[in-house]
């Protein structure tokens, strides 16, 4: 008997979204350097089950083990300018970027996870505290 798919449920798998994201931007959402990888803002892993859609994809430099993408996954690094990027610093920079430039990502998070759980996710994972009267642009 086959094991249950840990990523079950109603999810959107837009395989072209990954390609579009790789070609859509010219800077890392954390540090502003040229991007080299795509990050799922709401992780695909349980319990979040984030989707492969444009609103859930961000461009970051590095890979899952180096650069801003690595720092966001727990591997701190020092960039070419000598700035050290930890998980908390990188997450906060990504949170600021999303709030300022990606209202679609904030809305996706609030819709996908629910208003209360989405706000808690943003606060806990990206140090992003939305104003009580938040409304997307």
Biggest sheet: strands side by side, in what order? 1-2
Indicate the proportion of strand residues.
5-15%
Assembly context of the chains: single chain
Number of helices: 5
Description:
The chain has 137 residues and is mainly alpha-helical. It has one domain (15-126). It is 39% helix and 9% strand. The protein contains five helices and four strands; from the N terminus they run H-E-E-H-E-E-H-H-H. The strands form two sheets. The chain has a two-stranded antiparallel sheet. Strands 3-4 form a two-stranded antiparallel ribbon. Helix 4 packs across helix 5 (115-126). The longest helix is centred in the C-terminal third of the chain and has 15 residues, at 87-101. It is globular, with a radius of gyration of 15 Å. Mean pLDDT is 86; it is low at 1-8.
Characteristics of this structure?
137 residues; mainly alpha; two-stranded antiparallel sheet; 4 strands; globular
A few lines on this structure:
The chain is 39% helix and 9% strand. It contains five helices and four strands.
């Amino acid at each position: 008997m086959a094991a249950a798919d840990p990523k079950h449920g109603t999810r959107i798998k837009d395989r072209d979204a990954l390609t579009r994201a790789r070609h859509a931007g010219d800077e890392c959402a954390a540090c502003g350097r040229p991007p080299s990888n795509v990050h799922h803002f709401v992780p695909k892993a349980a319990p979040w089950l984030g989707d492969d859609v444009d609103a859930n994809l961000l461009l970051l430099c590095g890979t899952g083990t180096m650069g801003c993408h690595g720092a966001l996954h727990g591997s701190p690094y020092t960039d070419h300018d000598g700035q050290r990027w930890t998980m908390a610093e990188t997450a906060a920079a990504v949170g600021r970027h999303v709030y300022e430039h990606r209202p679609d990502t904030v809305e996706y998070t609030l819709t996908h996870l629910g208003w209360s759980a989405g706000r808690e996710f943003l606060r806990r994972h990206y140090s992003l505290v939305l104003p009580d009267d938040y409304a997307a642009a």
